[in-house]
Each structure stands twice: as C-alpha cells, then as structure tokens.
Write a structure and sequence with these properties.
Layout: E1 2-7, E2 10-15, E3 18-22, H1 53-57, E4 62-65, H2 75-80, E5 87-89, H3 94-99, E6 105-107, E7 111-114, E8 117-122, H4 129-135, E9 140-144, E10 151-153, H5 161-170, E11 174-178, H6 194-203, E12 208-212, H7 224-233, E13 240-241, E14 248-250
Parallel strand pairs: 3-4, 4-5, 5-6, 10-11, 11-12, 12-13
Antiparallel strand pairs: 1-2, 1-14, 2-3, 7-8, 8-9, 9-10
Helix pairs in contact: 6-7
Bound molecules: zinc ion.
The site of zinc ion has 8 residues, from loops.
C-alpha cells in the first residue's frame, strides 16, 4: 500500500493494486479567492501541484471525496477527471457530482464495497459551535482490503468523539489526518491542531499518523515545521509522518 500526498488533502492511494484519488483539488496557484473572513488573505491555492494535473489523474480508477468544500473538490478536478470514474462520497454531495457530469456516483451511507476494497464512512466535526454546524456535514472513510493494512482518512475534522470512536472501532494501521488548524477570524480551529494530531497518535499507539492539509490554503495557520516541533516534543516523531507535497509514504 502506498499513500502519496499530492497537495493539501489530495492523495493518491494505492491499495490492493487499485489507485484511488482522494479529495482532488487540482487548481493552479492563485486562481481561487482567499477563504472569506479568514487570516492571511492570499489567493488560493498557495502552492503549485508537485506534478501536472493530468499526471495526478492518470491511472486513477476511483475518486473518494470526504466533502465538497472547494479545497477538497474543485472545478479543475471536475474538469480533469473522466466522467465515467466512480465517485465515492457522502450522500449529501451526490447531486453536486451528478451536476458536474459524473454518472457513476456512489454515495456511502454506512459502507460500500468497490473492487475488493471495503469502505466505511465515519463522522467528524469541522469545528465547534455555530461554525462547526455551518460547515457540516463532513465525513471520514476507512478502507480495508484483504492483506492490506487498514487506512483511516479522517477528512476535515478536529479531534472529537467521532474520531475517537472511529479509531477504536477500526484500529487503523494508518490514520491520515487533516491538520493545518484552519480557522476563520472568529471561532476556533476547524481542522486539526498539533494537539489534535498528538491526541490521534495517543489513541492508536500502534498506528502511523500521516498529517496533511498544510501550507496550501490561506486559512491553514499551522505549518509543517510547527507541527514537527510539537510532535517531537511529544516524543512521536517516529510515528507521525508529515509528508511534503509529492512525497510517498509506503506501508
Ligand atoms: Zn479542508
């Protein structure tokens, strides 16, 4: 199994010989406005893709979208992806994929099977209070296949009971978490802080945690170096992987 971070939350996941593209945001840098009412007002994405978009989608056999906020599913991805590809996502986003011209849309209510891969949907909280309610719903997904380690893709969520529950229920070998401590001018973080990432690692002592969703969108204020320092202070450097854009994590 291999996970390659493309950029932000966009991953190329190779599992059981199949290639799945996760949360594709394929826009060129600076082509989208900053997130409204957020710090560090600069146009998004902040950085280029580490490979051309057509290479990112080459050989992809299915697409998994945790939710359709612009930094997880954008017009460039919808344009680059062949319309016959299966699109797996939360039921609330089905209409959006169909409107974009995709006809093999597979909403995941609880679980689906695709190829020999079983995909369970998990919950999450995209922030607390009113902000969290406004940004809902979001999902995570757990993928398992014969002979493969279980991988949990948490999606855009803070550390919360739903994440804790998913970790207990599925005991993943790899947990991909969206860090960045994204935030608006008001309200708390809407994605994981360094403490949240450390909490995930603490909840699954045998797992590797892969932290992504940093340095690509303006409202993500937690940088990789800051997270690495916090992880080091917590003694977790050997278990928490912070890949660069384009970097591969093999399991
Ligand atoms: Zn996000």
């Amino acid at each position: 199994m291999e996970i390659r971070l493309v950029r932000h939350a966009t991953l190329l996941l190779t599992i059981h010989g199949r290639r799945i593209l996760v949360d594709p945001m394929l826009a060129d840098p600076g082509t989208a406005p900053p997130v409204a009412n957020s710090p560090n007002q600069r146009p998004n994405p902040l950085v280029p893709l580490p490979l051309p978009a057509h290479e990112a989608v080459a050989g992809v056999e299915a697409v998994l979208v945790t939710h359709t906020h612009r930094d997880h599913w954008d017009d460039a991805a919808a344009a680059a992806l062949p319309k016959e590809l299966p699109i797996l996502g939360q039921p609330e986003d089905e209409a959006k994929f169909r409107t974009a011209g995709f006809h093999d849309v597979r909403p995941v209510r609880d679980a689906v099977r695709w190829s020999e891969i079983t995909i369970h949907r998990t919950g999450g909280r995209h922030g607390t209070g009113e902000v969290g309610r406004r940004l809902a719903p979001v999902s995570g997904f757990v993928l398992g296949a014969p002979g493969e380690p279980v991988v949990y893709i948490a999606g855009d969520t803070i550390w919360c009971p739903e994440v804790d529950e998913a970790l207990r229920e599925y005991a993943p070998a790899i947990a991909v978490v969206n860090a960045g401590a994204a935030q608006f001018l008001e309200g708390g973080p809407i994605t994981m802080t360094a403490d949240d990432v450390i909490a995930v690692a603490g909840a699954v002592p045998a797992a590797r945690v892969v932290a992504v969703h940093m340095e690509a969108i303006n409202h993500c204020v937690l940088r990789r170096a800051d997270l690495a320092a916090a992880v080091g202070r917590a003694g977790l450097t050997s278990r928490v992987v912070i890949p660069a854009d384009g970097e591969r994590v093999s399991v």
